[in-house]
Amino acid sequence: MTASERLADLLRLGANTAVIVYDPSNMFYLTEGYTGEGLVFISRNRRAIVTDFRYTEQAERQAPGFEVLMTEKDRSAGQIAAELVRAEKITCVKTETNYLSVDRFTALRDALGEEVSCVSLDKAPQKLREVKTPTEVMAIRKACKITADAFRAILPKIREGMTEKELQIELNFTMLRLGADTTAFDTIIAAGENGSLPHAIPGSRTIRRGDMITMDFGAKVGNYCADMTRTVAFGQPSEEMRRIYDTVLRAQTMCEDALAAGKNCFDIDRLARDYIDARGYAGRFGHGLGHSVGIDIHEEPRLSPSCQEILKAGVVITVEPGVYVPGVGGVRIENTCLVKENGCEALTDAEKQLIIL
């Protein structure tokens, strides 16, 4: 069964209902390959990509199972979608109210006309994307291998006086050289006191002896993401930073060991949070324990205090506790993991024990 068929089945798509998708990640998923712009139209009897001249040939190559329709100067993608709706006698369109701007949604409504209702798709494609197919897992596994290999390759290149920005550039280049199509997100490099910033922006801060260096990065392969974080020491770290590292490592390991199908996301997050709090770092772990990874770097479900979802086998999710102390620094350790019936498999195979350079 194709992804578009799975969506139609999930929505119980009737003869008078259609789906219009604009989100590039959902378009790629539902067409099983298209990476351009425009929209995707799905009804019980028709599958179409509506795009402009720049992407028509690409769409035909990447999604041979879909009809490709080209926009014109006075015929927008929304207007063509409305023509398809009328041709199919559609009375209800489900679309991505979470993704479209007010202006774009209004333009679609105007094109469809008052006789057609336009309702929320309610993130149905994202729900399908939670459990990965074997093909998707294979792509993520390859992205994770490139990411871990890049980490191992970069360690000998870290030197005193190197800036965070220089390390970011070197790490990005290494992932590309090892086979990444691109990076999955903006690489984070945080040295010394900047480690207290979970999403630090690499800058001119130079690496010095005694620094802990947090590196959060990932390769993207076949349009699927990897996500990995490691914190290493450049020279001997302080006793406080060693204690923080040991705390984060223990929290990460115990949660990864607890990860399995049937577990509640909230409970896995609480396991790390309670341990970190008990070690004296209450309030210093302010983000969720993890997030699913796939076409997008952040997907659902999430390991967090606000997610009560039950994990399913086939979910790919990160486990990434951290402790952040302003003026001192921070530590985060993250693996991307495949949830299985009786446990999980860490797709990230890089060393987690403290590495001192």
Description:
The protein has ten helices and 19 strands. The protein is α+β, with helices and mostly antiparallel strands. It has helices at 3-11, 24-31, 56-62, 77-87, 102-112, 124-129, 134-154, 164-177, 239-258, 265-281; strands at residues 17-21, 39-42, 47-51, 67-70, 92-95, 117-120, 182-183, 188-191, 211-217, 219-221, 224-225, 228-234, 290-292, 299-303, 316-319, 322-325, 329-332, 335-340, 343-346. Helices cover 35% and strands 23% of the residues. Strands 4-3-2-1-5-6 form a six-stranded mixed beta sheet, with helices on both faces. Strands 7-10-11 form a three-stranded antiparallel beta sheet. The longest helix has 21 residues, at 134-154. The mean pLDDT is 97.
Salient structural properties:
357 residues; alpha+beta; six-stranded mixed sheet; three-stranded antiparallel sheet; 10 helices; 19 strands; elongated
Q: Quick summary of this structure?
A:
The chain is of the alpha+beta class and 357 residues long.
Oligomerization category of the chains in this entry: single chain
Annotation field: number of helices: 10
Q: How is the main sheet built?
A: 6 strands, mixed
Helix content: 25-40%
Secondary structure category? alpha+beta
Assign an overall shape.
elongated
Q: Report the portion of residues in β strands.
A: 15-25%
